[in-house]
Amino acid sequence: MKREYYSDIIFDFLIRSNDEILGKLAQGNDFALEQTQRDA
Fold first, then answer.
1. For 1-40, how does the pLDDT look when each residue is reduced to its tens digit (9 = 90+)?
2. Cβ neighbours of residue 5 under 8 Å, at least 6 residues apart?
3. For residues 30 and 4, is the Cβ–Cβ distance under 8 A?
4. In the chain, which ranges are continuous DSSP H helix?
5. Distance CA 13, CA 36 (A)
6. What residue spans define the domains of the chain?
7. How many whole angstroms separate alpha carbon 35 and alpha carbon 12?
8. What is the dihedral of CA 14, 17, 18, 24, to 10 degrees?
9. What pLDDT does 32 receive?
């Protein structure tokens, strides 16, 4: 079981787009991403 939602080396993190990083975070998230759940 992974403890982090996103992991990368600093160099790769710095060259990745925001969309790539957010996509990885969303893929690793086990919880609902609907706005009503996020804002609850």
1. 667 888 999 999 999 999 999 988 888 877 777 788 777 7
2. 24, 25, 28, 29
3. no
4. 10-15, 18-28, 35-38
5. 29
6. 1-40
7. 29
8. -90
9. 78
